[in-house]
């Protein structure tokens, strides 16, 4: 669809999805399950749609985490709580976080955004996109603010699955992708290594040239199908509805200050008067 910028759409649904993992409510929900640290909660909640997935499978699908970092959480997480219990915990954490960050979740704008996002998410291709497919198979929440989150999660994982396919097709490995991204976005290598569990030696070995711009173009192209199905007018309306939501979440969520995605909606999306 001419004129659609897949990255601009991502900037709007990613912050809404990210409350899944990086909020006090999320951490409290997984702590209540008995998780040993935030990363066990993260891997348990994100992998739960797959069932009791092995660390090898999760390492492959999440792509840029060092295998040892995944093994510290899995399969132990499945002895702490079952995948359905992790799914219930993540939905409870999301509900609490959105209610705190947005103030009111019972608005006509959220109802409309949820309807548009659901249409887009149901049009996202699933072939070769395991995380998107696993999340699509879950029941849709009834409340509009949670239905919007579920749709954003499907769209986010569909884009992520497509991104991994592009990295593989361009021969860019997991640690190499992080090193290239850190350099391009002026992110601290030490921070990125710690965030994804790589050693200095692994980072130095992976820090080699790669065609990251082509990967990003391929990622954006592979993410357009939902918006082509939604159509130009409704996609534009979705952007209008999601912009203030993304800004409100990002401005109040400390996890959006520094993150391995170099995601900064407050800087990239801010418009005069958005919070008035």
List keywords for this structure.
mainly alpha; HTH_67; about 280 residues; globular
Please characterize this protein's 3D structure.
The protein has one domain (6-172, 211-259). The mean pLDDT is 93. The chain is built from 17 helices and no strands. The chain is globular and about 50 Å long. By secondary structure, the protein is mostly helical. The longest helix is centred in the middle third of the chain and has 26 residues, at 144-169. Helices cover 68% and strands 0% of the residues.
Please specify the SSE layout and strand pairing.
Blueprint lengths: L5 H13 L5 H10 L4 H10 L7 H8 L4 H5 L4 H5 L2 H20 L5 H15 L7 H7 L7 H26 L4 H11 L4 H8 L3 H7 L5 H11 L2 H6 L1 H21 L12 H5 L7
Organism: Lentzea xinjiangensis
Protein name: SalK
Pfam families: HTH_67
């Amino acid at each position: 669809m001419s004129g659609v910028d897949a990255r601009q759409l991502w900037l709007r649904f990613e912050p809404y999805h990210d409350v899944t993992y990086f909020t006090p409510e999320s951490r409290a929900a997984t702590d209540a399950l008995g998780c040993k640290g935030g990363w066990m909660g993260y891997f348990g909640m994100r992998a739960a749609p797959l069932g009791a997935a092995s660390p090898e499978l999760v390492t492959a699908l999440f792509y840029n985490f060092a295998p040892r970092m995944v093994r510290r959480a899995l399969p132990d997480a499945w002895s702490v709580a079952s995948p359905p219990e992790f799914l219930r915990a993540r939905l409870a954490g999301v509900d609490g976080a959105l209610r705190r960050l947005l103030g009111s979740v019972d608005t006509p704008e959220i109802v409309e955004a949820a309807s548009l996002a659901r249409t887009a998410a149901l049009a996202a291709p699933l072939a070769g996109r395991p995380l998107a497919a696993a999340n699509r198979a879950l029941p849709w929440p009834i409340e509009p603010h949670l239905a919007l989150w579920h749709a954003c999660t499907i769209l986010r994982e569909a884009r992520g699955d497509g991104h991994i396919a592009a990295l593989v097709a361009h021969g860019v490995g997991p640690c190499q992708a992080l090193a290239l991204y850190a350099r391009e976005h002026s992110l601290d290598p030490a921070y990125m290594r710690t965030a994804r569990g790589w050693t200095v030696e692994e980072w130095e070995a992976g820090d080699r040239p790669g065609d990251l711009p082509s990967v990003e173009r391929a990622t954006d192209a592979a993410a357009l199908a939902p918006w082509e199905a939604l159509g130009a007018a409704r996609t534009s309306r979705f952007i209008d509805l999601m912009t203030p939501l993304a800004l409100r979440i990002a401005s109040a969520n400390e996890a959006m200050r520094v993150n391995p995605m170099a995601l900064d909606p407050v800087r990239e999306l801010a418009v005069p008067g958005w919070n008035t």
